[in-house]
Design a protein that fits this description.
The complex is a heterodimer. Chain A is mainly alpha-helical. Chain A has one domain: Orthogonal Bundle (2-methylcitrate dehydratase PrpD). Helices cover 65% and strands 1% of the residues of chain A. Chain A is built from 13 helices and 1 strand. In chain A, helix 4 packs antiparallel against helix 5. Chain A is globular, with a radius of gyration of 18 Å. Chain B is of the alpha+beta class. Chain B has 2 domains: 129 residues, D-3-phosphoglycerate dehydrogenase, domain 3 (60s Ribosomal Protein L30, Chain: A, 2-Layer Sandwich), CATH 3.30.1330.90; 72 residues, ACT domain (Alpha-Beta Plaits, 2-Layer Sandwich). Helix content of chain B is 27%, strand content 36%. Chain B has a 6-stranded mixed sheet. In chain B, helix 2 packs parallel to helix 4. Chain B starts with 5 loop residues before the first helix and ends with a strand. The chains are: A mainly alpha, B alpha+beta. Chains A and B meet through helix 2, helix 3, helix 5, strand 1 and helix 7 of A and helix 1, strand 1, helix 2 and helix 3 of B.
């Protein structure tokens, strides 16, 4: 029940006549020598942590350790509550939850790395927004997390999810690809459509550099979690409409990895270039924690 | 841990902000605290590379101290670990050492002292995603991750000790995944590190210690 590529994953889905989430769950049971109940229970716990981290800062904003962020989720939430959101309900919710998780992360709260701490807002942002808008049960969200896990596993196995190795495209790009694929499955899309959505995200975020101000997981990381959630929803919508992608997910992973390795070291988590080197960022950093 | 689990992708469940600088730091210190007899009295952390530069903003210091007190990566007490250490009477110090460059970017040396006056130093590296490696014990180069159940035997480098260890393990039906011997020089102190799947059988340390050339046995469960 193991697979080494998206191509093999799709072949398994066809053979077993089941969605990506189910293949990933069965894989976990076999390789992890565990049962469905245990795996589902553990995933439900991850969902619980995701929900807490996505909602707490809406009421109780916290300042980050480095002092660069804090309070953004509450602002977005108030803005939407006044009926002023220009993104529409689902995107407004998704970006609010996504920035909330980063706020919790940056203030030493409890989060689920998905696939990394710096990109931990995207998957919960998208999935919890879909739950709000489409009345999706928790057990279906657990399924969606297994689907997201399959996409992230392929990225970890065949490329990278580390900003230091492949830039932000590897962290936020993969997080958004995971969220897009999960969103497609939640809306009844076929496995091919899920991976088309994942492929689209990597394409649209290709080349994004990792340039954290002060070397801290705060800024622009939080903004980019919101952007990742938006990218995921855009890609999912395109896939669900029936638009096929020329470049399959396996090839987009290779492409992302190849581009990542060519990103200069200054732009791979070293805080030496990009936003981290902007004059205002340097000035502010003199006061960072 | 030979495969990538779905919970390696959606996980670890952790106190932020960074899997390498916070969660990994907590794991290294957690492993270290398993290697010395409690109660701890004093601990010094020497930070290298990126740890030395950004430890404060990443909460690396709180995570290290929390791990030292046995807190897991998802334990919210990590945030308050300075205060908790003070309450427990655990003295601590952090020394950034940014000018040493020939180390892994996220490296820490931990010097621990317990109430009985025993002193132990370990070096750990945080590899990303909460994964870590212990690379030195009391100055001797070693290599283990803590992902498996691990037994560390401190011994005199003399013939027969390894045979003693494998006999004790095989008598209890323990299936060894990896076993390696590390030593500083011939005839001096050596470390046998045994990693295996599953839980370590209860009461195995006693029979392992029952050899004149075995000085100490440490047990580290994931």
């Amino acid at each position: 029940m193991d697979f080494k590529s998206a191509k093999e994953l799709l072949a398994l889905c066809r053979r077993e006549q089941c969605p990506i989430s189910e293949i990933m769950r069965r894989r976990e049971c076999v390789l992890g020598e565990t049962t469905r109940d245990v795996a589902d229970h553990r995933m439900a716990r991850a969902l619980e942590i995701m929900r807490a981290s996505a909602t707490q800062p809406l009421k109780n904003p916290v300042k980050s350790m480095g002092g660069l962020i804090g309070g953004e989720a509450k602002k977005l939430s108030h803005h939407a509550a006044k009926g002023k959101a220009i993104c529409g309900d689902i995107l407004a919710r998704a970006i609010t939850y996504a920035v909330a998780v980063l706020e919790v992360n940056a203030s030493m709260g409890l989060i689920v790395a998905a696939p990394t701490a710096g990109s931990s807002g995207v998957v919960p942002g998208v999935l919890l927004a879909m739950q709000d808008c489409y009345k999706i049960s928790d057990s279906r969200l657990v399924d969606a997390l297994f689907n997201a896990g399959a996409v992230g596993y392929l990225a970890m196995r065949n490329a990278t999810v580390s900003g230091a190795v492949g830039g932000c495209q590897a962290e936020m790009g993969v997080a958004a690809a995971m969220a897009a694929s999960a969103a497609v499955e939640l809306m009844g899309g076929a496995p091919e459509q899920c991976l088309d959505a994942a492929s689209t995200v990597l394409m649209n975020m290709l080349g994004l550099v990792c340039d954290p101000v002060g070397g801290l997981v705060e800024y622009p990381c939080q903004n980019r979690n919101a952007a990742g959630a938006a990218n995921a929803l855009v890609a999912a919508e395109m896939a669900l409409s029936g638009i096929r992608q020329l470049i399959p997910f396996d090839e987009m992973l290779d492409t992302m990895y190849a581009v990542g390795r060519r990103i200069p070291l200054d732009l791979r988590e070293t805080a030496l270039g990009g936003c981290a080197a902007a004059p205002s960022a340097c000035e502010r950093c003199a006061q960072c924690g | 841990m030979s495969y990538i689990s779905v919970f390696d992708v959606l996980g670890p469940n952790m106190i932020g902000p960074s899997s390498s600088h916070t969660a990994g730091a907590a794991v290294i210190a957690f492993l270290a605290h398993k290697m010395i007899v409690p109660p701890l009295k004093k601990v010094d952390f020497i930070l290298y590379g990126s740890f030395a530069k950004t430890y404060h903003g990443h909460g690396t210091d709180r995570a290290l101290l929390g791990g030292m007190m046995g807190f897991g990566t998802d334990d919210v007490r990590i945030r308050d670990s300075f205060q908790i250490a003070a309450e427990r009477g655990l003295a601590y110090r952090f020394t950034p050492c940014a000018d040493v460059t020939d180390v892994h970017p996220n490296t820490v040396d931990i010097r621990m002292e317990n109430a009985a006056g025993q002193v132990m130093t370990i070096r750990g590296e945080s590899l990303g995603g909460g994964k870590v490696r212990i690379t030195r014990i009391n100055g001797v180069s070693v290599d283990f991750t803590g992902a498996y159940s691990t037994i560390i035997v401190v011994q005199q480098d003399k013939p027969g000790v390894v045979a003693h260890i494998t006999k004790v393990l095989s008598d209890r039906g323990v299936n060894i995944a990896f076993m390696r011997l590390f030593r500083e020089e011939k005839g001096h102190t050596a470390y046998t590190i045994v990693e295996f799947d599953g839980r370590i059988p209860e009461g195995i340390a006693g029979p392992l210690r029952d050899n004149p050339n075995v000085h100490d046995v440490m047990i580290v469960e994931p």
